[in-house]
Amino acid sequence: MAKYEMQELNIPSEEDGRRILYPRLVLEGQDGLDELTERMCRYTTFAPAEVKGIVQLLAEAMADSMARGRSVKIEGLGIFTPRLGLRKGFEPETGLPGSTRRNATAIRVDGVRFKPDKELVRDIDQACRLERSERKFRQSSRQYTPQQRLALAQDYLSTHPYLTVSLYERLTGLLHVAASRELRQWAKQEGTGILASGIGSHRVYVRQEE
Fold first, then answer.
1. Domains annotated on the chain, with CATH
2. C-alpha pair distances (Å), 180 with each of 61, 124, 198
3. Would the pLDDT of 12 be above 80?
4. What pLDDT is recorded for position 15?
């Protein structure tokens, strides 16, 4: 039996203070290759060592394909796509005139995006039996008002080249989804002095030059 908890989805409304909650799975441990191999061997004539060898060969073949700039699709499992990031010690490009540009020496593969196959999601859903956890839902801090949070972001950018969602979380006490949504809001709103730079996992927020 799997458990779920309710977590805050967005920033509380300034008008009525309502919070929208959404379900989140509570992870209780992790299965590794040994556990999966044991499970698979129950339904096949393969020896555990053979199963492990095949899985390891698959991982090596996938790594080789993605290193060549290709995504990997495995029917019934999903699509794997390599993700790039900056090496430690290198700051993101801001896109502003005269700013430093990053070349290949500053870039590395820092992750792999996974898009699950619909069949995999369906199988998990059909096998999953849920019950509600006794844990209370997580919520964003109410220590600051929206305008105070904006001032915190502006002050930070007055002395730093960029602001990330993770940094904004720590500054304001907001949860990740709320922090990300509010930063996007500040970047779109005229007069905040904040602009978005980059896309996806490389998006940062910078000070708007006058």
1. 2-132 (4.10.520.10), 146-207 (1.10.10)
2. 36, 29, 14
3. no
4. 47
Place of tokens 């509380």: 12
Q: Which amino acid is at 180?
A: S
Q: Compute the 3-state secondary structure of the chain and give helix, strand, coil in percent, each to the nearest 5.
A: 35, 20, 40
Instruction: Write the DSSP string, 132-182.
Output: E-SSPPP----SS-HHHHHHHHHHHHTTSS-B-HHHHHHHH---HHHHHHH
Q: Which residues of 171-199 are buried (b: 16+ CB within 10 A; e: fewer)?
A: bbbbbebbbbebbeebbeeeebbbbebee
Geometric angle at alpha carbon 27, from 30 and 134, rounded to 5°: 145
What is the average per-residue pLDDT within 107-126?
94
The Cα 46–Cα 37 span in angstroms is 10
State the pLDDT confidence band at 208, using cuts at 50, 70 and 90.
confident
Distance CA 77, CA 45 (A): 22
- Residue-wise pLDDT for 197-207, tens only, equals 877 667 899 98
For residue 3, what are the β-bridge partners? 26, 131
